Amino acid sequence: MEPLSFQEYICSLDPATLPRILRICSGVYFQGSVYEISGNECCLSTGDLLKVTAVTLQKVICEDVQTGQKTELPPTFKGLFQPSPATSPCPTPQGPSLQGSRQKGLTLHQALGQSSRQTQPLLCPSISPHALLLSPVYEAQATMHWTR
């Protein structure tokens, strides 16, 4: 299995498979990598073990690929998404399921599930006439064990 960023891993998790034990291998930590334990800020280190117990979708950042404008969508957003035909030159592995959903559209959660690791532009007329990229923001609840 190839290494994933923590963000990619959390986005790809199926909540039905929790809890999951993770070992921090290496990495560069960016925004959100600092967490608080009993009022003290800490940072993940190589070798730390995490037991991920819950993952909750907080919001989705929706970016208009033509204008660059970003919008925050709540997890309860009711609009429907469709694959963007102008930006999909070749079928993806999940092409048949996306093709079948063109008529009815995908809910926000279905659209996030379809794109898992590869971001695919989508259309949602209630947001913009242009193709959109969705970036989910999750909150992960975990317990830690230090190997130090």
UniProtKB/TrEMBL annotation:
- What Pfam families does this protein map onto? CABIT
Q: Where is this region: Disordered?
A: 84-106
- List each copy of the CABIT domain by range: 18-82
> May I ask which residue range the UniProt record assigns to the signal sequence?
none
Task: Locate the compositionally biased regions of type Polar residues.
Answer: 95-104
Q: Known PANTHER family for this protein?
A: CABIT DOMAIN-CONTAINING PROTEIN (PTHR15215), PROTEIN THEMIS2 (PTHR15215:SF2)
Return the protein name. Answer: Thymocyte selection associated family member 2
Q: Which organism is it from?
A: Gallus gallus (Chicken)
Name of the coding gene: THEMIS2
